[in-house]
Amino acid sequence: MPTNNIVVITKKEDGETKRKAAPALAELAQRGWELKTTIDNAQKEVKEINTEILKKLKPGQAVVIEEVGRCTVVESTSYKISDADELKSILGPRFKDLTKQTVNYSATPKLKTMCIDADEPKQMQINACFTVSSSTAAKWTGEKTKAKEKAA
Predict the structure, then answer these.
(1) Cα(102)–Cα(93) distance, rounded to whole angstroms?
(2) Residue 107's CB: how many other CB atoms inside 10 A?
(3) Which of 13, 37, 98, 148 is the least buried, fewest Cβ under 10 Å from its Cβ?
């Protein structure tokens, strides 16, 4: 396993601090990166294989590795209404039972601030209209190498 300089970066209002990662954390990071790279490469290869299979099979056909797995070619169709007003005039009263309407509201940054701002007069009422959840995740991104930085 190559020995890369592995650090922990802590972001602060006035910048960031760096410290060398503990050996166990460095090993986890290195192994995690290796796995992520392997998975990304495998996903690209599967996509290329799927493209070739689609050239050779038709919808409803499958190539089967007996007692192991199969790749089935399936076809799907989606319908998006592009002119609801025109369709409504064509269908008349049947429009309501033949269509489904969905609405999705999301908070703007200003509304999010209003939810947590104690000085906002309607803060409690606004906040009661939300379910707020937080999560923590490990996100992998590539780092620029020195060679790439020089080229950029």
Answers:
(1) 19
(2) 14
(3) 13
Mean pLDDT, residues 17-38 taken together = 94
The answer to whether 21 touches 29, Cβ cutoff 8 Å, is: yes
Sign of CA dihedral 105, 111, 116, 120: negative
Q: What is the CA radius of gyration of the chain?
A: 26
Three-class SS of residue 78?
coil
Residue closest to 101 by CA, chosen among 81, 118, 117: 81
Q: How many C-beta neighbours within 10 Å does residue 117 have?
A: 14
Task: Report the amino acid identity of residue 138.
Answer: A
Tell me if 108 sits within 8 A of 115, measured CB to CB.
no
Q: How far apart are CA 80 and CA 99, in angstroms?
A: 11
Which residue type, as a one-letter code, is found at position 12? K
DSSP state of 128: T
Q: Cβ distance 32 to 141 under 8 Å?
A: no
